[in-house]
Specification:
Order of helices and strands: HHEHEHEEEEEHEEE
CATH architecture: 3-Layer(aba) Sandwich
Radius of gyration: 16 Å
Mean pLDDT: 92
Largest sheet: 7 strands, mixed
Helix content: 25-40%
Structural class: alpha/beta
Number of domains: 1
CATH topology: Rossmann fold
Length: 199
């Protein structure tokens, strides 16, 4: 574990953090579009380089993180070592949740959806997926989408049932960032989804 905690973070901390954060902002502003994460980083086993870069850009001493239990203990040590973030086993207390396998994750509704007065206090989910293609096809509409956008990330089928409820709860609700090996796709709570069997 000691060796893993001392794995380097960003090779160029300032530039890589800025570039990664810009990619995350773009992904959130334009739902359903994949953005490359080009930061040079040595990610610990179990974290994709893109997701690891996002963690280094988003997490700090003021942030509380929920880790899916199937992550190796070394991941926890690496995150704390590089970001100083707090950790919780209670989903509703988390600012961010790091999920390796959404199919085996706890009920998504257990995370904080924020309040009517402070919707921004909801949990943001950082979810690793195998691919942005090959899953259930859905059509996204909403802010940041000119007309409509078809996507098919490899997510469990019941995710889109949850997402319909999440969108209806706006301005409360969860925001999601999906990560493949070297890219990110945003699913903010403002994005409405519709199953598309003919896409």
């Amino acid at each position: 574990m000691t060796n893993l905690t001392h794995l380097p973070g960003f090779q160029d901390p300032v530039h890589d953090a800025q570039e990664t954060f810009r990619g995350l902002l773009d992904a959130n502003a334009r739902p359903g579009i994949a953005y490359s994460i080009t930061a040079k980083i040595t990610a610990p086993p179990g974290l994709t380089p893109a997701c690891a870069a996002a963690c280094l850009s988003l997490l700090d001493l003021d942030v509380v993180v929920w880790l899916q239990p199937n992550f190796a203990p070394e991941i926890k040590a690496w995150l704390v070592f590089h970001t100083g973030c707090g950790l919780t086993q209670q989903p509703q207390e988390a600012d961010f949740a790091l999920i390796q396998d959404l199919a085996t994750s706890s009920e998504l509704s257990s995370f904080s959806w924020g309040t009517a007065e402070q919707p921004e206090t909801s949990t943001t989910l950082l979810v690793q997926v195998e691919s942005f293609q090959g899953g259930q096809s859905v059509i996204l509409t909403g802010p940041g989408i000119l007309d409509k956008r078809a996507i098919s990330p490899t997510l469990p089928a019941n995710f889109w049932d949850f997402w319909a409820q999440n969108h209806q709860a706006y301005p409360q609700g969860l925001d999601v960032l999906l990560f493949t090996e070297n890219a990110v796709m945003g699913l903010p709570r403002t994005a409405k989804s519709e199953i598309c069997d003919d896409c």
